[in-house]
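Practice set, problem 2.
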Amino acid sequence: MPLLLLSAGVARGEVARVEIARRADVGASGYEKIVGRIHFAVDPQDPHNRIVVDLEKAPVNRSGRVEFSSDLYILSPKAPRGNGAALVEVLNRGRKLMLEGFNRSVSPDPEAESELGDGFLMRFGYTLVWVGWEFDLDDQPPAMRIQVPIATDRGTAITGVVRAAFTPNARATEFPVTDLSKYDASDPDGPESQLTVRPKMFGTRGEPIPRSRWRVRGHTVTLDSGFEPGKTYEISYRASNPPVAGLGLVALRDTTAWLKHQPEAAAPVRYAYGFGVSQSGRVLRDFMYQGFNTDEHDRQVFDGVLSHIAGASRISLNERWAKPIAGGASGAASFPFADASVRDPVSGAREGLLDNNRMGGHAPKVFYTNTPVEYWGSRAAALVHTTPAGTADLPLPENVRVYFIAGTQHVPSRFPPVVTNGQQTDNAVDYWWTMRALLLAMHKWVKEGVAPPPSLYPRLQDHTLVPAAAIAFPAVPGVSSPRSLTAGERIANPLLPGGAGGGAPLPLLVPQVDEDGNERAGIRLPDVAVPLATYTGWNFRQPAIGAPGELVSLLGSSIPFSATRAAREATKDPRKSIEERYRTRDEYLARVGEALDALVMKGYLIYDDGPRILQRATDQWDLLVPERSPAPKR
């Protein structure tokens, strides 16, 4: 029988009740695990909730409130271990990522202390919180979900046209369109059912495929001639029963407010930081933009937000026919891109992500962290800190920091790196060491008022940010040039008139590189500052999966230097060889140590993480250079 916790805030429609199914110590870690379900009941007439699309079309209970519920998972420190702060991770497609990232853990549901990795988050006393917000996931643990009501027109089913694009990596006659997994075709043979194909992901319009050659059943499309790898297809059809998807943002808001302001909450805290990776980083940008950082009692929700690898994009969640599971590779950026209010030359609209009439004076302290991947594509990360046309740098608000982590990819590849779907080896440079330092900096900023490390990112003014066509990438044999790439188009913003220029081309501004092809600006980790390879945020598709002139979504490259001058000259590689850079392994590792120390002094790394960073550098050398010598002590 689950333990039931009642919320004192139920009268205002916040958390109605919490059912705790499991509560147990995580070994001898000093942490306990709380697993259950959190139930909400919100007033559709409350001004704080009216922004939720179709909320007025959802069924209500006897009190006139809309009910919904989410999976809940908390790792809470036992007194006196806690630091008073909750790190609320917005789940990525139902998955917990911060334990693996911050803690080097491999278990999403730790039972023993050993399953908490190196215990970094526990050592500093954070309360870790996850709550389901996404409706379009399969009910398969450990994925965490939300259950939301279906919108109707006074009891009559609502129908509408849904669409999604997909790019197969292999030939097949059937393709399940995951982005539409909760929207089965209600009229598969109707006139709205269309399938188009185009040769490139961006920049071209699709050609219709004759209706007699394909079929859709549920959300699976069958094409008689087969789908060709590397081509982009777009399917549209009529579906029914849209969920009130925007309640996912309410779940994040009200769960966090419950922990901060209700003494009887399962794990009360004083501060709360929102953390999101990729898809969930986009959720946090939209959460702030749409005004959800103010709760129903006009209190601030998140004190700090760490939006990681989201670029300038947001999630398309609070709308009818939302598809939050979609990857956003084909376009996810809409005006406004930057935090401060600025005029959009395309639409004439003037707004900012944190400067609009919905913020309610509750803008949190914000870190935006991005890799080169988010600059090279439709996430258009440069627009976080430039004008909408990409013609000038923008000043950052005092409560915002922007950090570009040079030479990394969207999510680090495993080490040793391997070739997957790209023409080059994947990029294994590990940015999580910097993320650990920045998390501690956020807590000090909120709790103690200690300013975090200065923003580091490429700028137009000093030519470290340039159009893709101006990238000075060296002519490395066997490596395609990225100069002809484009960023795709804006998506429409439904909160602004005319969609704020939806469909307009996005500028592609990217970090400039040095003679080795490594980025000049940003946080240059030892891998980049003392390199053994060129590390990029792009990787062209292998011919075997089609479209070799297009990028593999979210993948970077690792292009090693030649070990010797003779090998370099034999291949005509313009980059210096390893032996021309470092006389010995010891010299290389000493220089890595110097670069590491400099980043520790500036606050971009933690001193205690130094030995493991140095060990990775040792392993990297041993992988690329056949000679061996003892590593220096640190």
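Problem 2, part (b): a different protein.
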Amino acid sequence: MKIKNKIFYSIILIGIILSSCVKDKEFDAPDIQCSDTEFILISIAELKNMYNGETIQIQEDLVISGYVISSDKDGNFFNTIYFQDEPGNPLDGMKIELELRDAHLFFNVGQQIIIKLKGLYLGESKGVYKVGGVFTSFGNRSVGRLPKNVVFDHVLVSCKENVGIEPTSVAILEINESMLNTLVAVTDVEIKQEELGETFAIKEEETLRTLVDCGDNELIIVNSGYADFQSEILPDKMGTATGILTKDNNEYQLIIRNVNDLSFNQERCEDLVDEFTSSSIFISEIADPNNNAGARFVEIYNASEESLSLNGWKLDRYTNDNNEVSSSIDLSEYIIEGNGLLVISPNAEEFKNVYGFEPDISVSTNSPADSNGDDNIVLVDPFNTIIDVFGVIGEDGSNTNHEFEDGTALRKLSVFSGNPVFTMSEWTIYNDTGDEGTINQPQNAPLDFSPGVR
């Protein structure tokens, strides 16, 4: 009977112990003593100015303060606290690395912290400044985690009331260096179309996702593969993304604290149509002056009344008998006016010396605008459709009806649209040794040419 009683009481005791265990992260923060000591502070900017290109240990009794903006509660931050110099409209921000799990229980978002710097290390990595302990590898020092047994010797909690943090509202194109390591709210963004349906992160892998605005400007968002929300599906609407702005070399990145930092409840951006096709755009002249190779050019004409963006358009050159593109000119930056011309030169300085004005587009030598008369030139729209062709791809132009060596290929005024098949009757062609139907009469610049005039 005594043995049965002992077993019975043991079971009860185990039940009591198990029922008292913490079952989730919703438990009370430990009671830590705050500090109301008035310290003489230096600014974060002054601390950064101490960095000389190498990780250094701070020897002076210096103190900085800041307001906590990160939280490791949901697992997207680990052994790191980001802080900024003011709760709103900050001038600067920084991070401290430390060996402290569940740091959010000690340092809440919005809480002012005081950091005693003496003995800590200051460094910079990928454009981001940080303080902490030291990590040594092969004799090289870098900032590492501050050991847990000294964390509270260096990082104090201020007794000042937690007034919360007001993130800096910003559009992607407005992001700049002054916002690094601060809390920002990036407005009017959505997850990139190609990533919809994906999870926040791949399990146990740091994963980069992409925010994009309605102008297709992008911002990387960094998610931990160990975050509590790792397996959740990315939101499919548009809104504001709040997080700490960081940098990886030359690329800005955003780290959110939890899924609520993505407040996406608006309809996604409408697809912006900015690529157009038109058969009214065509090649109007290709020039290879007999007396000056530097005066070569290609001219494109718009026979319609409406201006057209050439976003996605290109001009390709197939050198001699090549079946593959030898060089290409991207025309995306340009708009061609209604009944207007674009003159493209491979030598802008010489072009101006010869013709008296600057070309509309200046490109490199060996480009489609620098043909020596036996190449084939193709105008292609944004949808990879051939709109216009001069010559026969795969056929060297020498001694053919599409040779313009030492001369010019001039589109007849009766032509008002491009032609994806070379048709000699649409052209007047001057050269030195061309086939029947061409004019064997070399042309000299500037007398025999009129770029920019149709």
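Answer key, part (b): The first strand starts at residue 56 and ends at 57. The domain at 281-440 is CATH 2.60.40.1260 (Immunoglobulin-like).
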